[in-house]
Each structure stands twice: as structure tokens, then as C-alpha cells.
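As a point of orientation, let us examine one representative protein, giving the amino acid sequence and C-alpha cells.
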Amino acid sequence: MSAEHALAHRQPRPSPDTGPGVGQEAPVAQVGGLPVSTLSLDALIEKMLVEAPLRLSLNQPPLLIFDANGQGLSMNASDPDFRADLAQADLIHADGQIIVAASRWFGGPHIADRSSTTDMFTDSLKRAAATGTRYYLLGAEEKVNAECASRIVAMAPGLQLAGRRNGFWKPEEEDAVIDAINAAAPDVLWVGTGKPREQAFCVRNRHRIKAGWIVTCGGLFNYITGDYPRAPMWMQKSGFEWLHRMATRPRELAWRYITTNPHALWLIWKHRHG
């Protein structure tokens, strides 16, 4: 299913349990050693569209928004550098269905629903266009980044794209990357260079970047262009999207899921039972 088709046909999500409104702190669910926001997808989008432009206008440091899934849980436990970067997040949202399910297995605050980064992005486009919220796309290969930019402007007429850049640069070029972002001054900077590079970049540069929110997004841009196919909706809702990804990109993802998913399940159990 194309991103355009998904955006056009996505049904409104039920909202009886969206949690606190904008400006209020939502409770967090402790899942596998990570504090994950309980906000619903819609509440998270609303929070972003209100807070990001406001923080930018007040010249406040950007908020760091990271995601949690099985891979993230595993890396948080096994990679000290990644764990230190993840600890700097202002909000961690439930990118994986396993995170949502785990919050309901053992009591405590429940995560309202899954807020996959792809859904967070696509569901926000028309609202961002309506509110004048400006996006910057950082990541992926040049061809993918450019095509993604073209597609989202077509998907959401009126969307203001502050700028874009591919995700490949040398260490000595990072200052120039930051300068380009700051010249554009986006409300939301989407960083899609993959774990753990994107988290390290955000933490290292958060006080140099002029933006309201910085959101890590992995392979998002490839999903928008269709280079990475999304799983059928039933697989997304049932928590088996990882299986679809592994089947469609086995060389890239098979080993990752075979090793990190069991580890993530063990961590969820361990942190609940000590």
C-alpha cells in the first residue's frame, strides 16, 4: 500500500483514552527498562504541532523525541552509548506493538495505542499543512530523500517543507549540516539515519540545532517512497509487522529480528519480575 493510499484511507482513531492534553505531562509506562509515553498517536501528533512551533518561537532548546521497539529495548540493554543517548530523550513513544502490549500485561499505566513513526508522520501531514508547521527531512539516500519530499507536498497541499538533506556526510561536514538546518529553522526536524546513529546525532547537537522538536524516524523516508513496503494492516495491529519486514528485507533485517526480539521479550519479563 502506498503512503498516499494509506493517508487517504486511514480511518479516524478512537479517542476515549488519549491521555492528558497539550501542556500536561502524560504518565509513562515502564517497559523493559524504558519509560515510554502513554499518549495516543493522535495526542502525540497534537502535542507536536502545538509545542514545536511554540518552542521555536520562544528560542527554547528543541525537545528530543525517540522511539521504543524491540530493537530499541535490546540495544538499550546491550549498548552503553545508545543507552546514554536514549536517556536524554524528552519523550519516548511506542513505535512497536510489543511495547503497547507489554504495558498491559503487568498492570501500571497502559499505553493508549501504537504510535509508529511512519503513522505519526503521515497522519500529521495534512494537520501540519493546515497549521503552517514546517518540516525538515534529514536522512536516507539523496534520491529517496528528494522523492519523499515531493510526495509529501503532493499528499498534503500547502505543507511547508523548510528543507531537506540526505543522511550521508563526513564528520568534518557535520557543522555544515547543522548550519543548513539552522538556516531553515524548521518547527520539526525529522532525522532518519537509523539506530544508533540518529540518536547520537540528536544528543550531540541538540543545543546547536534551531528547531522545536527533533524526531528520530529510522527508515521513514523509504516507507513514504515505497522502497520499503509496509505490512498489511492486520499485521501492524497484531504486532507482526516485524515479520513482514524480515520477509521483504531478509538480508538487512533477519539477523536483527532473530536476535533482538527474543532479547526484548526477556527484558520485558525481567524488568517486571526483577
